[in-house]
Amino acid sequence: MARKTKIEKINSLEEQIKELEQKKKEMLELLYIDIGRYVVTEWNSNDDKELKTLIDHFKEEAIKIINENHSINMDSEEFSNEGQRTG
Questions:
Q1: Which residues are within 8 A (CB) of 54 and not within 5 positions of it... i.e. 6 or more apart?
Q2: Same domain, 68 and 34
Q3: Is 1 helix (H, G, I), strand (E, B) or coil?
Q4: Which of 4, 14, 23, 30 could bridge 8 with an S-S bond, Cβ 3.0-4.6 Å?
Q5: Rounded CA gap, 75 and 62, in Å?
């Protein structure tokens, strides 16, 4: 098999990037659908206006909880990494 030229390698990488970006887009779409379905099911409502109102109402509290969880995860990850370095 003939070796690929540098430009062929670049083109191949660009194609792989495009395919990965498309896969990422599809996975995000599925995530949004799954989360939407979960909210509709758990909150027992099909009224989009009502659900948006609830989301808006709880938005600040949810962001605060998410940020706290991220902070806790970062702290425990940092602690874990420190233990590995000295252990």
A1: 43, 45
A2: no
A3: coil
A4: 4
A5: 20
Q: Which H helix or E strand runs over 37?
A: helix 6-42
Please indicate, yes or no, whether residues 8 and 35 belong to a single structural domain of this protein: yes
Domain count for the chain: 2
Please check whether residues 38 and 54 belong to one and the same domain.
no
Domain that holds residue 57: 46-87
| Predicted pLDDT of residue 27 | 98
Residue type, 34: D
Which tens digits make up the pLDDT trace of 10-66? Answer: 999 999 999 999 999 999 999 999 999 999 999 999 999 999 999 999 999 999 999
Helix (H/G/I), strand (E/B), else coil: 5: coil
Residues 1 and 38 in one domain: yes
